[in-house]
């Protein structure tokens, strides 16, 4: 009898493995319960392009939780387009404080305030002085948007007294290696210092949940700390690796400046060596100056050191579905006129289809009634 039960349990476990559908992902498709879905919201450089905005990844867990790793210039547009409920976008982790990684915090602060009923939280590194740390950035952001949040609480959020207009900063010591900076509900996020523009602060981040892990390099030159973070325990499943340069057209800059620029990122050739050291199940490389002309050279350079394993040059709205058995690369379909979701709990507005009429939070009748005109 005991043997029968054991066999049944094993069979049930095998049957419970997530099946990842093929083809593009729509916002109606839930994340399989034991899997992680990564959506590339921005894969470009500070020189944003319509097809490649600055860096950001949305990491969605099968338990329903969402995590944002960086939120660079332009990435909020892709985030909204995914239709992820705004009340679930309350956890943001920053790798460093360059604008191509944090500029759209302002958009999330205000844009998601309509659907957010709880304070949102930002985890980010300290700097060499207090005014260079994440706490100072968030304090400054709150001040920058003080009039905006104050007025919108009167205009757009009539009658609400929740904490959707509040933000909490969690500044951690950037220099601590392999430091757990977040641990809730079976999810951990670990930080380690990396080396970017020879300035204190930048870190790489790793998220672990349900036996799966995602490592995000932030911006860095090749560093052993990144390799150590990504290869801990059983090693990371997915490595989201920054690569850029070398940049050859800064002849007007002093030699020292050129040198710093070209030694503060991971070049495609160096990326091959880093990937070989880490050997993830999937390597996705972003932050590249990639276009049709440069793509072949970039891939060739990476492949000199990383000849055969799974490699993907990430583009905006790529999706990586990660289960214990399988990693699938898909594409997120987003309607270009989507309003996104305002609420996750069934209240208010659900306008993911992009219908302008459906997106309005109040009916004509309710507005007129509120004004005493109906
Ligand atoms: Zn960057």
Automatic annotation (TrEMBL):
Keyword Hydrolase (UniProt): yes
Metallo-beta-lactamase domain location: 53-265
Protein name: Metallo-beta-lactamase domain-containing protein
InterPro entries named in the record: AtsA-like_MBL-fold, Metallo-B-lactamas, RibonucZ/Hydroxyglut_hydro
Signal peptide: 1-17
Domain of life: Eukaryota
A molecular function GO annotation: 3'-tRNA processing endoribonuclease activity
Spans through the membrane: none
Annotated keywords: Hydrolase, Signal
PANTHER family: ZINC PHOSPHODIESTERASE ELAC PROTEIN 1
């Amino acid at each position: 009898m005991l043997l029968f039960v054991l066999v049944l349990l094993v069979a049930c476990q095998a049957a419970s493995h997530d099946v990842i559908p093929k083809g593009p992902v729509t916002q109606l498709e839930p994340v399989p319960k034991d899997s992680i879905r990564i959506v590339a919201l921005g894969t470009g450089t500070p020189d944003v392009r319509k097809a490649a905005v600055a860096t950001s990844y949305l990491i969605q867990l099968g338990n329903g939780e969402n995590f944002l790793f960086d939120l660079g210039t332009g990435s909020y547009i892709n985030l909204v387009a995914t239709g992820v409920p705004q009340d679930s976008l309350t956890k943001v982790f920053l790798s460093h404080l360059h604008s191509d990684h944090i500029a759209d915090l302002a958009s999330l602060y205000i844009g998601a305030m309509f659907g957010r009923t709880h304070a949102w939280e930002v985890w980010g590194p300290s700097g060499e002085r207090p005014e260079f740390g994440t706490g100072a950035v968030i304090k400054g952001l709150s001040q920058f948007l003080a009039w905006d949040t104050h007025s919108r609480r009167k205009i757009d959020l009539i009658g609400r007294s929740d904490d959707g207009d509040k933000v909490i900063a969690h500044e951690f010591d950037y220099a601590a290696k392999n430091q757990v900076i977040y641990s809730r509900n079976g999810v951990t996020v670990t930080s380690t210092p990396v080396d970017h523009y020879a300035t204190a602060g930048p870190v790489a981040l790793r998220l672990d949940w349900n036996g799966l892990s995602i490592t995000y390099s932030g911006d860095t030159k090749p560093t052993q700390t990144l390799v150590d973070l990504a290869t801990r325990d059983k090693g990371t499943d997915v490595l989201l690796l920054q690569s850029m340069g070398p940049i050859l057209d800064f002849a007007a800059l002093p030699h020292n400046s050129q040198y710093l620029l070209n030694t503060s990122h991971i070049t495609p050739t160096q990326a091959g060596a880093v990937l070989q050291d880490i050997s993830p199940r999937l390597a996705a490389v972003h932050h590249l100056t990639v276009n049709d002309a440069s793509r072949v050279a970039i891939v060739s350079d990476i492949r000199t050191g990383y000849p055969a394993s799974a490699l993907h040059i990430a583009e905006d709205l790529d999706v990586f579905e990660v289960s214990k058995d399988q990693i699938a690369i898909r594409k997120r379909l987003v309607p270009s006129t989507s309003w996104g979701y305002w609420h996750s709990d069934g209240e208010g507005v659900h306008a993911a289809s992009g219908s302008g009429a459906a997106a309005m939070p109040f009916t004509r009748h309710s507005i007129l009634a509120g004004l005493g005109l109906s």
